[in-house]
């Protein structure tokens, strides 16, 4: 039982016929679907997800020219749910996302800062990556005018290449510093708190670079490992090795050696994919060397001038 499937079924069986009846002239330009916040929009919801902010719901998006219809459509939607309550109504917690009626441009501005998606490097860098993941997940049920899908398809083309390269370079540097360098050093010093921090940062950066290599936006940290397992490039191998690292919790020498081997294997996979994509040519084992090579391929003068380890 998935929230997206339940919402789709309710929309087509209950909401759509009434929208067409009550707004016959407006309906051809409307868009509707379930996109954005919530594990159900990624298809990752389970029984635990159902305790809050889960259940049947959908957005209605209108073109900017029809903005004046938004208040009436909000009332219409509230009445629809009161008169035809779904079997699994959506609950909303104090901090849960609101799913409602808005213009297409307001939806995308709220997530990306731009009504039709970013067009400059500065605009791309204003929004967090997880917001782009929210903007393109879920499902658009209907899109009469095509306006909502046009922006969605633009965002799905992914970051401009220079931004992707800068992010990859920084992740390479972080992986080299944490996994290839500081993991063993902090373990030898018996600095267990810092060791756990090192492993956490290594894992987060490893997940991030695999998303970058796949040209897929990384979602919110709570969902990123689950999403990693579905990625076609390195997703399966990376998730297996990261799981092994996490499950090797011992602080003894044997556990240290096992984790170091898993880290080595994962870094080798990443280096091989960098070479495969033509982003690096070095045969060096150290990912910092790869990071410098990736950095050198950036065309934008400002991004190229930043230190390779600088995060954007």
Task: Describe this structure as you would to a colleague.
With 312 residues, this protein is mainly alpha-helical. It contains 13 helices and 4 strands. The chain folds into 2 domains: 154 residues, no CATH class; 145 residues. The protein has a 4-stranded mixed sheet, sandwiched between helices. β2, α2 and β3 form a beta-alpha-beta unit. The longest helix has 28 residues. The relative contact order is 0.11.
| Average pLDDT | 96
Total of helices? 13
| Low-confidence regions | none
The total count of strands amounts to 4
Instruction: Kindly report the oligomeric state of this protein.
Output: single chain
Radius of gyration: 23 Å
Q: Please, how many domains?
A: 2
- Report the portion of residues in β strands: 5-15%
SSE arrangement, N to C: HEEHEHHHEHHHHHHHH
Shape: elongated
Spatial ordering of strands, largest sheet: 3-2-1-4
Short description:
This protein is mainly alpha-helical. The chain is 57% helix and 5% strand. It folds into two domains: 3-156, no CATH class; 161-305.
Question: How are the SSEs ordered, and which strands pair?
Answer:
Elements: H1 3-22, E1 31-34, E2 59-62, H2 70-83, E3 101-103, H3 104-112, H4 121-126, H5 129-136, E4 139-143, H6 147-156, H7 161-188, H8 192-214, H9 221-228, H10 235-247, H11 253-276, H12 287-296, H13 301-305
Parallel strand pairs: 2-3
Antiparallel strand pairs: 1-2, 1-4
């Amino acid at each position: 039982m998935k929230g997206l499937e339940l919402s789709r079924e309710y929309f087509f069986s209950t909401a759509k016929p009434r929208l067409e009846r009550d707004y016959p002239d407006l309906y051809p330009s409307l868009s509707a679907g379930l996109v954005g916040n919530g594990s159900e929009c990624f298809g990752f919801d389970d029984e635990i997800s159902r305790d809050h902010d889960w259940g049947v719901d959908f957005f209605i998006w209108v073109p900017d020219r029809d903005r004046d219809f938004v208040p009436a459509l909000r009332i219409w939607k509230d009445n629809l749910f009161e008169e035809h309550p779904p079997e699994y109504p959506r609950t909303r917690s104090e901090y849960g996302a609101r799913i409602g009626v808005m213009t297409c441009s307001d939806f995308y501005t709220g997530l990306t800062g731009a009504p039709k998606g970013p067009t400059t490097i500065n605009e791309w860098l204003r929004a967090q990556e997880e917001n782009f993941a929210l903007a393109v997940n879920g499902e658009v049920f209907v899109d009469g005018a095509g306006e909502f899908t046009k922006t969605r398809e633009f965002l799905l083309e992914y970051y401009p290449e220079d931004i992707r390269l800068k992010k990859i370079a920084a992740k390479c540097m972080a992986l080299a510093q944490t996994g290839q360098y500081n993991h063993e050093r902090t373990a030898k010093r018996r600095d267990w708190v810092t060791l756990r921090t090192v492993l956490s940062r290594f894992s987060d950066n490893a997940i991030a670079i695999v998303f970058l290599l796949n040209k897929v936006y990384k979602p919110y940290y709570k969902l990123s490992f689950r999403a990693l397992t579905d990625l076609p490039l390195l997703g399966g191998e990376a998730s297996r090795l990261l799981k092994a690292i996490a499950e090797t919790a011992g602080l003894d020498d044997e556990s240290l050696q096992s984790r170091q081997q898993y880290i080595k294997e994962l870094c080798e996979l990443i280096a091989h994919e960098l070479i495969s994509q033509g982003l690096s040519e070095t045969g060096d084992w150290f990912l910092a060397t790869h990071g410098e090579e990736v950095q050198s391929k950036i065309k934008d003068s400002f991004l190229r001038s930043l230190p390779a380890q600088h995060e954007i």
